[in-house]
Design goal:
It comes from Luteipulveratus flavus. By secondary structure, the protein is α+β, with helices and mostly antiparallel strands. The protein contains 9 helices and 8 strands. It has a 4-stranded antiparallel beta sheet with strand order 2-3-5-6, with helices on one face. A two-stranded antiparallel ribbon has the order 1-4. The protein has a two-stranded parallel ribbon with strand order 7-8. Strand 2 and strand 3 form a beta hairpin. The longest helix has 29 residues. It is globular and about 65 Å long. The chain starts with 6 loop residues before the first helix and ends in an 8-residue tail after the last strand.
């Protein structure tokens, strides 16, 4: 059988992902034998997040283009559409992805999104004086795995996009949070551990993307977050988020084309995303280094010198 039309978009995504795996390998190679990182390691983790969100942006463009091409649009029309889509796709958050796919294809992918990441249970620990205030961290050991789907997966993606945005604009940490989240941190999470239910869910999603320290007491309009940082786990999670979002977008879109455009999935080879192996696989663990949806990940050897 022939490859599915969307496989071309996944191949383009795989090439873009090689930058992410390179950065993770460089970061891993710089660590001391004892496993500790120096101050510059954080810059590499930031680069991983930036490159990962760039892959989401490129993959979204490619999936829309190939979905349109599969419906028989002329080459002249496709040239114009490709240029237009590239200009419109500037911020790869879930809202922009949804708006673009809905506008061009009539397909809203939000419910299809799926990611599986490592995270930490909520904490309220390591109190340290910070002037007249006390600083505490909201994370502990990163020994949990969580799968998030639909709007929850969209929140994870959107936080990584906000983290990327913060690098470019050097804004305060509040830029990472919605107003309700800022209020929750200021009024509750700066004073106690997250309560079971929505608070725990929010902090687990937060801990999967960055490590946050809060301040207390704080009054409006003071930033209730002392600072946030990226650990190695967050860098790996950025790759896992990207691969999960890309494959779940492709999975949902392929099913949509099957039912609305006559592009039958059963008539083509199964869709898959090639991802180079490397240190990230060991860091993630076998249960995370696999696709969370119906489009598989095919782990291929990490051989930068053999790329064409």
């Amino acid at each position: 059988m022939n490859d599915h039309p969307l496989q071309l978009a996944l191949q383009r995504s795989a090439r873009a992902l090689s930058t992410v795996t390179d950065l993770l390998e460089i970061a891993k190679g710089r660590k001391s034998p004892g496993g500790r990182s120096d101050a510059r390691q954080a810059s590499l983790y930031r680069a991983v997040v930036t490159a990962s969100m760039g892959v989401v942006e490129e993959a979204t463009e490619a999936l829309i283009v190939e979905a349109l091409r599969s419906q028989g649009i002329s080459s002249t029309g496709m040239t114009l559409l490709e240029s237009t889509i590239a200009k419109l796709m500037q911020t790869p958050n879930s809202g922009e992805i949804s708006k673009l796919m809905t506008s061009f294809l009539g397909f809203d992918p939000k419910s299809c999104l799926k990611v599986r990441l490592r995270t930490s249970a909520p904490a309220f620990r390591e109190p340290k004086s910070f002037g007249a205030q006390t600083s505490r961290q909201l994370w502990t050991i990163y020994n949990q795995e969580r799968t998030w789907s639909g709007p929850d997966a969209a929140q994870v993606l959107d936080r990584f996009v906000k983290i990327r945005h913060s690098f470019a604009h050097q804004d305060s940490s509040v830029v990472l949070f919605t107003k309700p989240e800022v209020d929750l941190i200021r009024n509750h999470l700066s004073t106690r551990r997250a309560a079971p239910g929505p608070e725990v869910d929010m902090v687990e999603k937060l801990n999967a993307t960055c490590a946050v320290r809060v301040l207390s007491p704080v009054q409006r309009p003071q930033d209730p977050v002392r600072d946030w940082r990226l650990h190695e786990t967050h860098a790996v999670n950025a790759l896992l988020t990207t691969a999960g979002v890309v494959t779940s977008l492709a999975d949902g879109l392929a099913t949509f084309l099957d039912s609305t455009a006559g592009v039958s999935r059963s008539a083509f080879n199964p869709l898959c995303l090639d991802i180079e192996t490397g240190g990230w696989v060991k860091l993630a663990g076998q249960t995370l280094a696999t696709s969370p949806c119906g489009v598989s990940w095919r782990l291929v050897p990490y051989l930068p010198g053999s790329r064409t």
